[in-house]
Specification:
It is found in: Cytoplasm. The structure is a single chain. The protein is of the alpha/beta class. It is built from 9 helices and 16 strands. It has 2 domains: 182 residues, DHBP synthase; 101 residues, Rossmann fold (3-Layer(aba) Sandwich), CATH 3.40.50.11030. The strands form 2 sheets. Strands 1-8-2-3-7-4-6-5-9-10-11 form an 11-stranded mixed sheet, sandwiched between helices. A 5-stranded parallel sheet has the order 14-13-15-12-16, with helices on both faces. Strand 10, helix 6 and strand 11 form a beta-alpha-beta unit. Helix 1 packs across helix 4. The longest helix has 16 residues. It starts with a strand and ends with a strand. The model has no long low-confidence stretch (mean pLDDT 96). Bound molecules: adenosine monophosphate and magnesium ion (MG).
């Protein structure tokens, strides 16, 4: 398949009238799939009303069919056609966070949207992305746009058009390059169908920020306990993994260095994922600094790029520091634990 590539400056005005946006929107209306930037990660968009378009998304990504897609909208009114009522707390969250990195799960109006997009569920996850290119594109189509992350299933999500190109070139109709994304981890998913909102996936909007708006929320118990089945179907899959096995290490820098030394003595190539502060401390075959230790937003923003960078280093094993679970640090640790297949080594 021929994959078109458009470069778009997100700061220009009247984006909706840009030829690149018009061309991409026209393809979406023809039920083709196109990747576009959002403030969290790049999304792979398709018409959420069309089984044909949605099937192309799953096919291009190699995504399991039981993992529902997030529906992206550009105006709140778009909800009316497919959501069965907006609960009070959901309304408060929409007013506060949209556009932004918060996905809200609603009850769906029966018969609306492609059943493939929602994996046959009676609920639907929706968000309004905070990115001028995404908003212009969605507005131009006038459609609800189903858009999972634009990566090959299982790989780290894409935070640049180059990542999308690496994973999906030749498999999708186009890529809009709008520069690097900002937040760097996916949206927070919150289920508002019950009396108390439940966070199903930590992400760009933090628990602290959410509770400041709607009061106490619950966390899906599956987030803390691997034995419990998650309420969000996608959360059960291994994800974000670099090519070499990754281990999280809780302990001192000396302890982590010792783990590296042991592997290297065996003739293996070992990498370490650390922060800017500690890069100079470690001796390994690759030492990558990901943001700054006490600024979780900076770690989130470069996490996936760093995980992808390891793949170019041809390593046998990677050790990662753990990060404080403060603010977006909660999402960072959730993604890292998944990338590591839950392997955590603790210093005695
Ligand atoms: P992604 O598009 O790759 O960011 O993944 C979307 C996430 O939203 C996955 O974890 C899905 O399981 C979750 N999700 C989508 N729709 C629903 C829904 N109706 N109920 C619960 N979780 C959902
Ligand atoms: Mg994804």
């Amino acid at each position: 398949m021929d994959t078109k590539f458009w470069s778009v400056d997100k700061f220009v005005t009247n984006l909706e009238d840009y030829p690149q946006i018009s061309e991409a929107a026209a393809l979406l209306k023809e039920n083709e799939v196109v990747a576009f930037p959002t403030e969290t990660v790049y999304g792979l968009g398709g018409n959420a009303d069309s089984d044909t378009a949605v099937a192309k998304i799953f096919e291009a990504k190699g995504r399991p069919a039981d993992n529902p897609l997030i529906i992206h909208i550009a105006k709140k009114e778009q909800l009316d056609s497919f959501v069965d009522g907006v609960p009070e707390k959901a309304g408060m969250l929409m007013d506060h966070f949209w556009p932004g990195p918060l996905t809200i799960v609603f009850n769906k109006k029966a018969g609306q949207l492609s059943a493939k997009a929602t994996a046959g569920l009676s609920t639907v996850a929706v968000r309004m992305p905070d990115h001028p290119v995404a908003l212009a594109l969605i507005k131009k189509t006038g459609l609800p746009i189903a858009a999972p992350s634009a990566n090959q299933s299982g790989k780290p999500s894409p935070t640049s058009a180059q990542h999308v190109h690496d994973d999906l070139y030749g498999r999708i109709s186009g890529i809009i390059d709008g520069g690097a994304t900002g937040v760097g981890v996916e949206s927070t998913v919150i289920d508002c169908t019950g009396p108390v909102p439940v966070i199903l996936r930590p992400g760009g909007a933090t628990v602290e920020q959410i509770e400041a708006v709607v009061g106490k929320v619950q966390l899906d118990p599956a987030l803390a306990d691997q034995e419990i089945a998650p309420k969000s179907p996608g959360m059960k899959y291994q994800h974000y993994a670099p090519n070499a096995p990754l281990y999280l290490v809780e302990g001192s820098r000396d302890f982590l260095q010792e783990l590296i030394n042991e592997k290297r003595k065996l003739g293996l190539k070992a990498g370490v994922l650390t922060t800017e502060e500690n890069v100079a401390f470690f001796q390994a075959d690759a030492v990558l600094g990901c943001g700054s230790r006490d600024k979780p937003e900076t770690v989130a923003s470069s996490l996936y790029d760093t995980l992808r960078e390891f793949n170019a280093k041809d390593l046998d094993v990677i050790f990662s520091e753990v990060f404080p679970r403060i603010g977006v640090g909660e999402a960072v640790m959730n993604r890292l634990m998944k990338a590591a297949g839950q392997r955590l080594i603790k210093e005695e």
